[in-house]
Amino acid sequence: MRLCHCLFRRVRIAPLTCLVIAALIFQACCAATQQTEQSEDSAKAARTKAEAGDAAAQFRLGLQYLTGAGVPGDPKTAATWFQKAADQGNADAQNALGALYEAGEGVPEDKGEAAKWFRKSAEQGYAAAQYRLGRLYLIGAGVPKDWKETERWYRKSAEGGYPDAEYALGVFYKTGFQVPKDQMQALDWFRKAAEEGNADAQFSLGDAYFKGQGVKVDLKEAANWYIKASEQGNADAQTILGVMYSLGKGVPKDNAKAYMWENLAAVSSEQARSMRENFEKFMTPAEITEGQRLASEWLGAHPKSDE
To answer: What CATH code would you report for 162-231?
Structure first.
């Protein structure tokens, strides 16, 4: 059950804004990051090439319709252009089209179609599609549940440098799921993913240093990784980090920061809510007020993504 919890935290199918837009913008380095005027020019240029049959331009135009960069946001039109590019074998578009079918955005939700397009992209070595195909095998969506296939596609994706797959493979080695249990291999994959910004991997790496799993106990190094994960909103890391600040372990003792992290984690963690209540018993009103201020300040600097 713990294994499924670890993995399913990463495989929850989020709405389009989380599942598709952020990942595709980053992966494709598209025109959505440009200024509005540049985006409009880019859309016009992409349309000219797209209408002439250029698959890469068709994908870019679809992405602009998906994100509303230079054109009105329209998932259905995005899907149309992704389809045209995907039919020509464009791996970016095949992955994007699969994501639309998985989420049911711009096209009817169809996990089988999602798997089909992820597979086409994955077979061209597209790491994100390899991960997504492996995820569908994990949960048995659109394909029969097959954990061997999950491991196979996650490994290909991880070897291609995809952080979510690196983290998942680390979980496999840590738990002995589909591979021999190997703490050192787990740490290697967690570290790869953590260094690329995967919050769950950062938490897992911090946990290894905190508990001495495969490495010597090093509370400062544990705190370093917990901080990185906490800054990305990982509630597990925030909860432990709050305790570390409260006790002065691995970080300087700071009751206000301890309260801040428990306050932030308390939104989704019963354990953090309990810790926050315990902290209030020995904190001064001034420390509580400062902790609340720090939490509010943090939230202002870390606006929540649309869910």
So the answer is: 1.25.40.10
